[in-house]
Amino acid sequence: MSIRLENVFFSYLEGTPTSQAALRNVSLEIEDGEFVGLIGPTGSGKSTLIQHFNGLLKPDSGKVFVDGVDLTLKDTQLRLIRQKVGMVFQYPEHQLFGETVLEDVGFGPRNGGLSEEEIVKRVREALAYVGLDYEVLKDQSPFELSGGQKRRVAIAGVLAMRPSVLVLDEPTAGLDPAGREEILAEIKQLHDEGGITVVLVTHSMEDVARFADRLIVMEQGTIALDGTSLEVFGQAGRLKDMGLGVPEITELMYELKAHGLDVDTEILTVAEAEAEIIRVMGWGCQK
Fold it and tell me: Any idea what the CATH number is for the domain that residue 101 is in?
């Protein structure tokens, strides 16, 4: 399932003296099966942009298409689009409301008129995707779970609708390092094994370097950069001018290069850095 934006403009409070332009002539296409990282300074338009992906916001001008369907037309059934393009907002556990995990995760399928048997099947499947045990948690209150479990239950509620696209706005915000790793690993597994298109909004350069195939960088409501992780992080100076950075391990390689070590700076992960340093130092050579 693809998402395409053509010349999208959007302003908050349009037509008023306090109108603020949030998106300016944005055009992009996200192809089926991509894992896209969306980064940019605070206020650059990231959250506004993703809310156009399933019609939560409509552009002042321009077009938005999901699988060829024009979301700007009045007769477009946005409910069906939102089943296909699932949205997980920052701190999604704040949106939990059910008395039990089963009720909460099953809300979407139940609202869609599915049978109780199918609802239970969907809930069981969605909880398994995020590493939670249906039998253990189904009758528990979601409000009594740990922070990481609440986050997973909230994500499972979106997955129970079986979306083709999963859009996540800072899904690891506020979690401890172990919780962050678990959530990200589960999102990566959904992409790799489930074939779901993923759009990940984050401030973590390390996260997108490890998981995203493509990076889109927003600046002042426009797309400033769009390319592979290597292509985008190769423009370290431009990113720093925006108030962003590169992964810490990439920064280390630039520092080593500046101090005379002939290392490749196109390094994004610790494993890549380890292999490159061993290569340059000759530690892997036999005497």
Answer: 3.40.50.300
